[in-house]
What does this fold into?
Amino acid sequence: MRPALVLGAALSALALVAALISLIWTPYDVTALQIGARLQPPSEAHWLGTDHFGRDILSMIMAGARTSLAVALVAVGIGMGLGVPLGLAAAAHRGRWLDEAIMRGNDLIFAFPSLVIAILITAVFGPSALNAIIAIGIFNIPVFARVARAGALSLWTLDYIRAARVAGKHRTRISVEHILPNIANLLIVQGTIQFSLGILAEAGLSYVGLGAQPPTPSWGRMLAEAQTMVVMAPHVALFPGLAIVATVLGLNLLGDGLRDALDPRLRGRVA
Amino acid sequence: MSLLTLETLSVQIGPTAILREVSLSLAPGEIVGLVGESGSGKSMTALAIMGLLPPGAQVSGTVRLEGREITALPERALCRLRGNEVGMIFQEPMTALNPLMTIGDQVAETLMVHQKMPRAEALAVARDRLDRVGLTAPRFPLDLYPHELSGGQRQRVAIALAIALRPRLLIADEPTTALDVTTQAEVLSLLHDLARSEGMALLLITHDLAVVAGMADRVAVMQAGQVVETGATERLFRRPKARYTADLLAASTHHPAAARAPQKGAPLLTVSAATRSYRLPRPKPFAPHPELRAVDNVSFTLSAGESLGLVGESGCGKSTLTRAILGLDPLASGAITLSGHPVSPEMPSHARADVQVVFQDPYGSFNPRQRVERLVAEPFHLTGRPADWRDRVAEALRDVGLSPDDRGKFIHEFSGGQRQRIAIARALITRPKLIVLDEAVSALDVRVRAQVLDLLAGLQRSHDLAYLFISHDLSVVRAVTTRCLVMQAGRIVEQGPTEALFTAPQHAYTARLLAAAPQIPQAWTEERHATALV
It folds into this structure.
């Protein structure tokens, strides 16, 4: 068994379970302010303490997980949904103008630092979780397009693709029927990695106030708000920070572990 | 005294016995051929001699090099041994060299590492070794990179590397399998000459009996990890003792039932003045693109039910021509018609159903994620899937000697020979008139190859098929075709009835190809046939 894969899966599952539970129940209402109980250290009533408005930090982390995962998931969905077809189309038309157009378009997006453009988009259209999703999603498109194209190009040279062409199948059909299932491994692994990057990007945008707006809880904004009080009440900053680290680490370990587990060339090395 | 002695060498990896009591010896200057089918343990024997077995391998028995037991030596001592006393050449000249190092540096590096030679001196020796393998000074300077050399030249560099330290023993593992026949002949003669003139023992590992027939003093035949027979080459070929050896020899000279005379009437496939060229990179900025005429004014016809061979070395344009005949790539000029329909990438599906193809690599020919049923049924895309398609798949599988129950399996559950049968089933499913066999038996072991050739001959009779048989292997083409085309640099240089072409070639290139092809002397096999009849 692979310990990294198990640890990664466990951490990712923890974040997911927290987010799912928060949909129906959190220990305290995350919008209820209790100024009297502000900045309490961890106790039996509040396991992770309370913040400067007296809100329960555990509840906010659970609800924040929902925001982070939802933003990252939809962003990866946008990236995969648009990037993979573009990559497959580029590979199917290798060396022709369509390939060139798609890949140069990708280069264009790649050329800008992603966070800067995300800030630009949210600055123009106003900060919100939706705009954060769109901004992060756009930057996932070229990543998936490249991965899909690279994987597809090596498959296009194989005989079974030639056999399918002799069977009169169109490029699009071959891409869907023969190429896509055989590059699914690559895409799943890349998806996991992009997912963790999406969580980081969402936390970063929220930290500078361009992500989810109050009262929607968000790990990045919790960090930003705790910043001024870090000496008085370090736990207010510590726990959301740990949540981000654990989730991102977990997803990265999961991605690495999946790559090893799904790659038949690596399979069997760890006996 | 013998240079290398293996005594009851056994290797086990996990529960699997890889080598079983292999015994073998080589005298200085002797050439021993080690032959066997894939998986018989040939390469493992070589790795055991080099001390390169994978971790976890359990070794028993002895390997003695010049009287010294080496199985128990520590890694450090083995490192000194490799290169110094034992050199090795591998099959794939494309990957055996470092693409970022010049050939001179690669050869010199061995000397600098093993003999602590200063660089200038090492380069001088490297020059001498490269001269020795035929890459002489003015044409092949030391600062060439591997990509600037052809496959055969790279294999020569690999040989120069292996003999840089003048090892006593050279192990060549399928050294010419990836090379064209004419290049193969040159590399083999170089190895032969090196062994004789430098007193170096050569262990030649190959699946090709014809190669050892012309090279080796003695031959050891391996099967399933065991040496089943060892003997002087001529004796072994004339009077094999082991049943397995006799089977191998029979399979390698196997002639399937003669192909039928082609039907009269309008030709099935007509290729007239077909030309296709590729644009090469500009030699200078703004210079016009030079063109490579991959297929240059090629014309021929193929009748229904005929077996036509197409031979030529790599880069001669066979593959380009094949793709055009399959309607995958367009022609620059000229025309191809199949049963009267023009062939092009835009041809309608029902016309396309008349031609199918079987490729060389039984491992790359199938989508690993689909079941056999779906793989075989794929060409139905052309004709529309008939209602009884499952029965048709079962019938095709039965035709190629497999069970209809194999429909639900995945491709990795089959051996190479079985996969090639499935590829043939896929080609048969639309009941085509022409099947293009693109090196279809080249990757198969001789005994499996003989079976597949018999299968193809049988199918041709029962299904009224025409074959276009594309191969670099002259003996196979000779055995299965009635007419043959020889292609060189994009042109058909000679065509005619196969037997006439092989016995009295008219074109110089055909004669050169035939002379270079390794052959088992006819006299050796005649005697065997005679004894077999008794």
Remarks:
- Chain A has one domain: 3-262.
